[in-house]
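REQUEST FORM: STRUCTURE PREDICTION
Request ID: SP-0412
Submitted by: Lab K.M.
Chain count: 1
Length (residues): 197
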Amino acid sequence: PDILHRIALLHADQGRLDVAEALVVGTRLAEAIGVAHARGVVHRDVKPNNVFLPEGDLDRAKILDFGIAGFTRATRRLTKTGIPVGTPGYMAPEQARGEPVLDARSDVFALGCLLFECLAGKPAFVGEHWMAVLAKILFEEAPPLKEMRPEVPSALSALVSRMLAKEPQARPADGEEVARQLAAIGQQPESRNVDST
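STATUS: Completed
RESULT:
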């Protein structure tokens, strides 16, 4: 099952993970993409359908499908310059614009979208069609998680907001940095035993 299927099984009534679960899966996924980033690889399509949970275990989450991955210093591209590559609801703004060079911060944005969805129970950017979704990614801010779910720790809400920043330089640098910050948030008392009520 993928992450959304797992959420449906765990919390069919609310369609979202509790804070502790989101921290576990978020840290695991950030560590996984951090390994790729350390080798100069950008996934470019981090999304729920590319998250596999062996036996439904959040702590064993794995990132799949590196089919459109690229190297940060690549001289060749898999697609033509100016054509967006990825999945509309999880593309970073620079990816949506079809910029020719993407780095780890594009994956950080996508992971922020995924974390937002796990915690909020709905995507950060929604629209009637893919162009409307891309317009929102380019021009609108995602609502703060803290407003949608007051029990989400302020530090986690702030981190997700930074991950969803329009400008890449305002985001954490890579998966490893996100993993460190998520682990630190998980150690804070307000992050423990917080359910989705």
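NOTES: The longest strand covers residues 41-42.
Reviewed by: T.R.
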